[in-house]
Amino acid sequence: MTKDALRKLYLQKRQALTEADYAQLNFQLYQNFFFNVDLSFINVLHTFLPLQKNKEPDTWIIVDRIRREFPHVRLVVPRIEASSGTLENIFFEGLHQIEKNKWDIPEPKQGVPAASEKIDMVLVPLLACDERGQRVGYGKGFYDKFLATCRPDCKTVGISFFEPVERIDDVNALDVPLQHCLTPTAFHTFA
């Protein structure tokens, strides 16, 4: 399938989730994350903050536990730089620095910037991914541009409610594949 077809299909699938299903899938993602992801060697972790109107996976529950139980991990959250089409990474200090932008995406209104080369792991938003680690987002390319600036050993973990599809047909040279994808029931590793 093409990215556009997958984008439409998976936005519909997310919107069709009941509140109970959404809560259950988020809890399973949370459990599966802490079961499969070793944070011992992670010093700086970048995570997206969920766009709740699109029923994105709730990373807030992961953020909360990391802050409580893994004090050595510094969290970084993105801020969209619309004029350049890029993400700025800001160290997360607390809820007081977060506000919704014009697209309703929660992001830091201020804070200390974090250099991409300092980031050890990125939790990547996606609508769908395939069995090769290629992903479909909202189509603006923010994460592909950002991931291209990260160190080669930076771990990338896509987070999805749904299992990977067989193949995304219209992948291009600017698409940066994931190393892993976390779903409620699996932790996929791509070659």
From TrEMBL:
It is an enzyme of class 6 (ligase). It catalyses: (6S)-5-formyl-5,6,7,8-tetrahydrofolate + ATP = (6R)-5,10-methenyltetrahydrofolate + ADP + phosphate. GO terms for molecular function: 5-formyltetrahydrofolate cyclo-ligase activity. Its cofactor is Mg(2+). This is 5-formyltetrahydrofolate cyclo-ligase. InterPro entries: FTHF_cligase, FTHF_cligase-like_sf, NagB/RpiA_transferase-like. The keyword Nucleotide-binding applies. Its EC number is 6.3.3.2. Gene3D superfamilies: NagB/RpiA/CoA transferase-like. Keywords: ATP-binding, Ligase, Magnesium, Metal-binding, Nucleotide-binding. Belongs to the 5-formyltetrahydrofolate cyclo-ligase family.
